[in-house]
Amino acid sequence: MKADEKRILESLRRAAESETPDVLPDVLLRLQQMKGEVQGMEQNAVYQTDKAAISVQGGRWKTAARWAAGAAAALLLALGGQYAWGMLTPQAMVGLDVNPSIELRINSADKVLSASALNQDAETVLGDMDLKQVHVDVAVNALLGSMVKNGYIDEARNSVLISVDSRDSRKGEALLQRLSQEADSTLSSYQLEGAVLSQVLSGDSRLQALAEEYGISLSKAALVEQLVQADSTLLYSEAASLSVHDLNLLMEARKSRPQAVSVSGKAGSSGYISGDEALALAVERAGLSADAVEGQEVELDCDDGRMVYEVELRSGGMEYEVELDASDGSVLSYKAELKYKEQLTADCAFTLEQAKETALKDAGLTAGQVTLQKAVTYEEDGRPQHKVIFRTDTARYTYVMDGSTGEFLAAERKDFSGNAASSASSSVFQGSSFSAGSISADQARSIALEHAGVSGSDLTKYDSELDRHHNRQVYEIEFETGS
Length: 483
Fold this sequence. Notes:
six-stranded antiparallel sheet; six-stranded mixed sheet; elongated
């Protein structure tokens, strides 16, 4: 029996030294203290460990020793089990997305348990690196370095998405902040000014389903979901096909960054033509001179998985729509449409200046808060009409008024975030402004899709505007499906 007890204690000692925190000496010292309670025993046996000795006497002590050895074993197994669970079971997932998408599973000591390449680009980045038991900070540093060396990150494409999904939310947030700073530092060491996006994830079966449907990481699925919610003009299917860098550019251009996504640094734009260059190319395609353009709108967008500029021009009663590839400026589509007849120069009972003042008042804005894009008088249906267009940083307003009576013939507001919304009520013309009681853009979308017999997941393109025709508010909705 003594030999059995000795083997038990020796096994516990080895297990404690190799797998658990060094709690064994404390346990053995407590056993040694029990020796003072045993009196009148003659036989002694000493079990020696590296840090403590136990003197065991015969008689009653033998029974106590067996009980104590069992208690020590149970204690160590409990501690060792908990420790092993934290060391061998993933406690957090760290996602690293550029276009390569990589997921790291880490333990309670922030050591990597596994590294998964989620696409072919990620396999190139991982190469023959073995990241198991490497600290996650070092692993992220190595992966970013590989992305730079393999050409996935450069001055033109400098955006990185870091995501953390942790069992411990507080620890997860601290880890995310540390890794974001590590990413900034790593990119700086390569003389790159990075744009680091960061987000905290939580287990969501719906996001997992989206990730599987579109063949993207859970981290990117969450980013796209938040971006689409912030900008309803974007379709999930379109945004999911873009790189993290292009998504970052769209967020900057449309001022639609989700609140749950933190961003440090600015997305590089040297890989695409500028908005001014897109405008000049569109003017050239329309056969106009810069001086002849009465109004314009330039917007960065995505179409069929690529970045494009959508340019609208107005000149001499014509409206031009030009779509250009943002990477090289090539014209993808062009449309010219007669919108109104030649401009009138005759005076009207209700003047153009009055029309501008009335439009601004109806929108609840002042001249200093807007950029006037067009103010023109023309003849339509045998009567003079005024058309006034102005914009703010967030919306474009279009008003058409009768040149004789000042009656509102049309009023339109388009938010650049894509959300049709109501403007301030007019105190001058009853019912002229957008009514707060109208149905929402989402309700109009549901009605239109139901009427067409299609579902939202079938859409490849969607556009909605709240308009006013003949003193009645209407939603003008256009959409396309794959078929």
